[in-house]
Amino acid sequence: MDVEKVCLSKNKLKLFPLQLFTAVKQVSALPTRAVAAVLTLAAVVMISTVWFLPPATAPVSYDRKAIIIEGQRRILFSGSIHYPRSTPEMWPGLVKKAKDGGLDVIQTYVFWNGHELSPGKYYFEGRYDLVRFIKVVKDAELYVNLRIGPYICAEWNFGGFPVWLKYVPGISFRTDNKPFKVAMQRFVEKIVSMMKSEKLFEWQGGPIILTQIENEFGPVAEYGGADDLSYAQWSAKMAVSLNTGVPWIMCKEDDAPDPIVNTCNGFFCDGFSPNKPYKPAMWTEAWTGWFTSYGDPLPHRPVENLAFAVANFIQKGGSFVNYYMYHGGTNFGRTSSGLFVAASYDYDAPIDEYGLLRQPKWGHLKGLHQAIKSCEKALVSSDPNVTSHGLNQQIYVFRSKSGDCAAFLTNNDTESNSTIIFNGLKYDLPPWSISILPNCTTEAYNTAKVRIQRSEMKMISSVGGFSWNSYTENSNSIPKSSFMMQGLLEQLNVTRDSTDYLWYTTFVDIGKDEEFLKNGQYPLLTVASAGHSLHVFINGELSGTAYGSLQSPKLTYNGNAKFRVGSNRISILSVAVGLPNGGTHFETWNVGILGPVTLSGLNTGKLDLTFHNWTYQIGLKGEALNLYSITGSSCFEWGEFSQKKPLTWYKAFFNSPDGDEPLALDMSSMGKGQAWINGESIGRYWPGYKAFGSCNGCDYRGFHNEKKCLTSCGEPSQKLYHVPRSWLNPTKNLIVVFEEWGGDPTDISLVKRINVDVELQK
């Protein structure tokens, strides 16, 4: 029996109590005879209560080397595919391509705010049909790592938390807070209960071999105190008590208490080791690229760099690697976070946003998986014998008792090739590369030698020249549903995230003696906002627009107000671009206009409007009329096409293009807004926000971060928006666009995305 192994009973989780681990730490202070007595007693207790079981009775367990499935240590390759970021019709194809690429596991978060829309009211349909997704993975004979969280980050709106959670009395997120823990435990129990009832855990014949509690708590706890530590301990204890029958993990949490396995996230994890010597080294997020934010260039990660990072992690003892993302997908609707995250969550992943293979990334990683899998017996059987061959070259040799041998030859030099002599043979290694020798003789793979032809993505115009009707919002009206308050209100507290939009309206009286009426130097209106964008209208006419950025979401608008004698209306449309997805107590962060709001240049000097009476209107009239839906659109009398006006709704109909190629809307001619196909939101669009940054080429060698390999500087951060074919009818498909800035819809087109010149690795 391997005393380093933590096993899991087939019918019930059997693990060290947290208190026992704490007690054992203190044993070393006792006399030798007392130590022996304590350890003997502990062993008797553990054996009698089946805390340690032989591998044969534990379908999923772990030891210091690897995850153990049905008694076998396994090197596991995994890929993140988030079920709400693609359609159910796409899931089988995505999972098949993941399997064909050499993956063993599909990893996904569970999206709390997509499932519990209000307390106790659950939704598990459409893109949120979690059980269906897991069964698709099961049908493909792959495993699942279910990251329940329920905090997920993921560049997802509010980090996956439902907005109603913020308004539970006395709540404080992710700390030792009873209201939060009650809500969190209820949801986690709900998910675990669903998985058990559907028999989806591995011991039930299902695919789930791992479950995650919390997510990336370490960076938060670093700045916290005793309450945060207590919360982490509680989370672990609560999770273990649910008896999932599979190991629990915590990522980026060095203090993860036993028996939870702490794991690594990052571009590189070769320096990572778990917090206890009897736990395996696991990499839950090997970042294949990075997310795109509006206003930023497109990030990329060369596959040579990624492959080097993975091979380096494996040769240094790692046994589980998950690619985040393997397919990124799309932030449909208003699901992207307040980091100005784009609708596209492509992530430069091996399978692109549309479900097509990105080459050479997919094929080169497939070759890596094949090479490492052929070394599996040696890798999981022993620690490596490491020898240095120069300043930047090493050889890692693994041998099993049955005679299996595998070698990893490493050249860490970022400038020069290297020739390594091993077992009397010469091996040439490019800079910053690792060669894998499954039999300690033949080079099966080198991380920098890419033999896969690069694919080229092209867009072919399919449908254009839409025949539009339009409707323009009236910025000069006050609906009956509005209300008045003195002072400025925080936006989320008013809208509860039911919409991105909140109108702030006030009035200013201008006397006929104002000097600016004579000299034409209109007063300066200054509006300070917590984010993210706003449009100012003076007496119904657009006066100006301002918006923040990923780096600085807060903004200040400065613009001259063209007032006239008498009463003047100031209407400000504040626009959110998602809610924060992380940070210390992000439930306390603000959105919208908090002030000050001032007028300068009047005869009396500066006028502070912050504490004036303000009228508030939640959302747009078009939203209230459901103009984006098939029913709402058909019941409304649209006007003739009106071009390039702000706050304008457009609708048109089109027939579905022939073929099965993925589709996208080319929105290059538009400014900012939202779009719908047959009532389904394809997300927020913002081609008017050009990418600002430094695009200075790309080199795979050396350290990588999200700023290293950027493209598309000076271009829209995103101009193509995914339209799933499953949303389309053969004829008369409804497209609705809401344009904030005044873009030109006549140049909108539906295009096909194709992959050309692809040579897949055999």
Automatic annotation (TrEMBL):
Pfam families: BetaGal_gal-bd, GHD, Glyco_hydro_35. One of its GO terms (biological process) is carbohydrate metabolic process. This is Beta-galactosidase. The keyword Glycoprotein does not apply. InterPro entries: BetaGal_gal-bd, Galactose-bd-like_sf, GH, GHD, Gly_Hdrlase_35_cat, Glyco_hydro_35_CS, Glycoside_Hdrlase_35. It comes from Dendrobium nobile (Orchid). Residues 501-558, 647-733 form the Beta-galactosidase galactose-binding domain. Belongs to the glycosyl hydrolase 35 family. Residues 67-371 form the Glycoside hydrolase 35 catalytic domain. It comes from the Eukaryota. Keywords: Glycosidase, Hydrolase, Membrane, Signal, Transmembrane, Transmembrane helix. SUPFAM superfamilies: (Trans)glycosidases, Galactose-binding domain-like. GO terms for molecular function: beta-galactosidase activity. PANTHER family: BETA-GALACTOSIDASE RELATED. Its EC number is 3.2.1.23. Residues 394-450 form the Beta-galactosidase beta-sandwich domain. The chain crosses the membrane at residues 34-53. It catalyses: Hydrolysis of terminal non-reducing beta-D-galactose residues in beta-D-galactosides.
